[in-house]
Amino acid sequence: SLVAPDRLRFDFTNPEAVTTAQLQEIEAGVNRKILENYSLNIVFKPLQQAMAEGAMALFGEKYGETVRTITMGGETPFSYELCGGTHVGETGDIGTFLITSESSVGAGLRRIEAVTGREAYQLIHRRFNLLNQTAGLLDTNPDQIVEKTRGVLEQLDGARKSISSLRRELIAQEFKLLLENVPLVDGVAVLTAILPEADGESLREMADRFRQKYQSGVILLASVYDGRPLLIAAVTEDLVARGLHAGELVKYAAQPLGGSGGGRPTLAQAGG
């Protein structure tokens, strides 16, 4: 943990992450105590007396016989601690408390980081400027950013689906032309083709269409989808009976790509 004039880092044991709602509750509670502007009461007293009165001590910290105690909250203090550091005179001197992050730092150990005072103000100022800039880019006001962003994302999702649908149609048309002009080698239909941006499902559908049309044939299709090479091989039953294996075929074809794959004798897939 760390306590500095303008920031803090607090490590504590907890089996799970602190939720957003809990963080908001913590932040609101601290700021409420700041706004109430309680005075700090500093008293030096024997360690045993302070501990008997319920003062909070840091685990692993070594204390002398006489300790410096701090209470906040008037006659019914909400905080009573052993502390040797320098502190503000009133809680209002802290200004503002903002939690900046909550994270895991080990098994069952969580960390909250926060800023206060001038640093908190500067953080608010930076984020307010960012909010205004984002609102300007979205051509809306800051209060409508979430709704506007949701609408833009929905439009983007719809556009992506339309593009994907059109791409599949174009690939299907291209494959239809290929399927109508498959060369025969000793009576066996042999088709190899590269269909850029076709996904694995599309390639498998094309391989099935090939096997439905040709009683004896072998097909090897290649694509690059999401930056990754894909290969699909399919072999008709008669050629499997003669020793041809789609898994071995696609595995061999994937070697130059540094990939691997496999599958059934009639249908197999590989990637790079």
TrEMBL record:
Keywords attached to this entry: Aminoacyl-tRNA synthetase, ATP-binding, Ligase, Metal-binding, Nucleotide-binding, Protein biosynthesis, RNA-binding, tRNA-binding, Zinc
Keyword tRNA-binding included in the entry's annotation: yes
SMART domains: tRNA_SAD
UniProt key word Acyltransferase: no
Every Alanyl-transfer RNA synthetases family profile domain range: 1-126
Catalytic EC class: ligase
E.C. no: 6.1.1.7
Protein's GO biological process: alanyl-tRNA aminoacylation
Gene3D superfamilies, A to Z: 3.10.310.40, 3.30.54.20, 6.10.250.550, Threonyl-trna Synthetase, Chain A, domain 2
Record-stated family: Belongs to the class-II aminoacyl-tRNA synthetase family.
Stated name of the protein: Alanine--tRNA ligase
